[in-house]
Amino acid sequence: MVLEVMELLKEHLPLTQEPFVLSGDLNIGLVLVDVVNGFCTVGAGNLAPKQHNEQISQMVEESARLARVFCEKKWPIFAFRDSHHPDIPEPPYPPHCIAGTDESKLVPALQWLENEANVTLRCKDCIDGFLGCLEKDGSNIFIDWVKKNQIKGILVLGICTDICVLDFVCSTLSARNRGFLSPLEDVIVYSGGCATYDLPVAVAKTLGDAIAHPQELMHHVGLYIARGRGAKVVSEVSTKSF
Ligand SMILES: [Zn+2]
């Protein structure tokens, strides 16, 4: 059934994707969205996968692969960590990624990023990382990072394709269009480096009022909406030019 629906979805919401080659010509920054245990590591919490999930594992692997490339080149990386105060809920989600717990830490494959000089880490307590970068004085850490590094393109990976990744991409595109993010031009979403969670409709029905969230479908829809808003969606990221 899901396979048939995927076929229909791809027919009616076709997503054209190009491969992307990293080269030193473009000032590019890597943005990693919430590659934390609470969303990625089996059994780590309320919103973590309950069993091995291929899409999530691939997203983690690709995040680690590209993070290594960026660190070798000393190119800038901006890594979000979902991180909540225990007394402040985030509806409609159950408690997750409480600050100071393992859930809000980067996954083991990315822990080493915390000690790298080219990496900016940002704990955020909301879905939209762009808003999560707002400081009390009105400044925005992400805008500052783009300007300080004179970034012209961002490559976005992470979880969830249709939630935190999508909201961050949409807000960033709006901010760019309003002139807040100069010199940023391109927002590039790597489909194979993104993942979302899986709650098939048959399982959702057994959970009362849970909203079904079939992984492949919602991943595709998230990418499709990102592209519709002006992001570039790329099918692979290679480094073969250097
Ligand atoms: Zn959260």
UniProtKB/TrEMBL annotation:
It holds the Pfam family Isochorismatase. Gene3D superfamilies: Isochorismatase-like. One of its GO terms (molecular function) is nicotinamidase activity. Residues 30-198 form the Isochorismatase-like domain. Coiled coil: none annotated. One of its GO terms (biological process) is pyridine nucleotide salvage. Belongs to the isochorismatase family. This is Catalytic. The lineage of its organism: Eukaryota, Viridiplantae, Streptophyta, Embryophyta, Tracheophyta.
